[in-house]
Amino acid sequence: MTQATECDRQRLASLLAAQVKRDGFSDSPLPGVRYARALRHYPLAPALYEPSVVILATGNKRAVVGETIHILDPGHYWVVSVPLAFSCETFATPDTPLYGFSVRVDPAMLGELLLEMDDAPEATPPVAFEASRDQTSTIGMRAMPMTETLADAAARLAACLAEPGEARILGPGIVREILYRVLLGPQGATLRALAAQNGRLRAVSRALKRIHSDFKEELDVEMLAREAHMGLSTFHHAFRAVTATTPLQYVKAVRLHKARTFLAEPDATAADAGRRAGYVSASQFSREFKRLFGATPSEELARLRSAAG
């Protein structure tokens, strides 16, 4: 596959610049596709990504997952194969802004594509989970070289997003094409393993989804290991290979991210956000929140209200 050209990137950047109105991730007219924009530098800070393909037309991002650093620029795309908490830094200025978008990896669409690709000669064979023994690397996120065919599909998706009718009618087909192009690439093997009916990667993915949906509950690691049909030691190893962290640390990160989301709601209070995130102790919540985000819940609440005002 040939790499994307500067012309492809400029076309995508021009289309997105005319549509995206605010910094950060924002919804597009097509469910599952989110715009990304930045007009300034955003320092390294905790982030929570859903399974998605992230494509940039301009600008740069840096993700720190455990001890591994992943660089995202217009010459590469990110594949986040599982719900993942990590630290992210954004590089942009008003003169050199960041524009891009993310496409959610829909499990149903993924399964349909793989069924149809069974006879495709160029399809990537399933990945063996044990191929990744290096604890400084993860298979939950990878940066892959952007190809000309993927860049063309990204530009066509951005073009149809400019018109709600085209986004609704044509968009799903182009999203399907983007996912297909990713499946044919080097990271396609990981997505194939996630769609398999068994295997450790699939089991860890189910555990991650359980954590994200039931974060308020007492999530016992031994229980998660049993549900994954793994021994405790094996589960720890598999979980760290995907997320670069331990199950308990991941649960804590998800709860704190959820609490931060609750703080942005109208009439929110720091105490209520902590309770809704599953914290019984307000002092523990405040201490762990500050350790992750660099500010107490009350300070973050004041900042959010100031920004809204």
Any overview of this molecule?
With 309 residues, the chain is α+β, with helices and mostly antiparallel strands. It has helices spanning 6-17, 107-116, 148-161, 164-184, 188-195, 200-213, 221-227, 232-243, 247-263, 270-276, 282-293, 297-308, and strands at residues 24-27, 33-38, 42-49, 52-58, 60-65, 68-72, 76-80, 84-91, 98-104, 141-145. It has a six-stranded antiparallel beta sheet with strand order 1-2-9-4-7-10. The protein has a four-stranded antiparallel beta sheet with strand order 3-8-5-6. Helix 1 runs parallel beside helix 3 (148-161). It has twelve helices and ten strands. The chain folds into two domains: 6-195, Jelly Rolls (Sandwich); 200-309, Orthogonal Bundle (Arc Repressor Mutant, subunit A), CATH 1.10.10.
